[in-house]
Amino acid sequence: MCGIIGVENNENAAVLASAGLLTLQHRGEESAGITISGKEKMRTFKAMGLVSRIFNEEILLNKLPGTAAIGHVRYTTSSKSSLINAQPFQISCIHGNISVAHNGNITNFFEIKEMLLKKGAIFNHTSDTEILLHLIAMSKGSLTDIVANSVRKLEGAFSLVILKDRVLIGVRDNNGFRPLVLGKIGNSYVMSSESAAIEVIGGKYIRDISPGEIIVIENGQIKESFIYKKPKKQNTCIFEQVYFSRPDSIVFEQTVKEARVKMGEYLAQQMKGVKADIVMPVPDTGYFAALGFSRASGILFENGFMRNHYVGRSFIKPSQNLRNLTAMLKLRPIGEVVSGKEIVLIDDSIVRGTTSKRLINILKDAGAKKIHFALSCPTITDSCYYGIDTPSKEHLIAANNSVEKIRKYLDIDSLTFLNLENLVKACSFGNKKNDVFCTACFTGKYPTKISMNV
Ligand code: SF4
Question: Smallest Cα–Cα separation from 99: which of 126, 137, 67?
Answer without folding.
Answer: 137
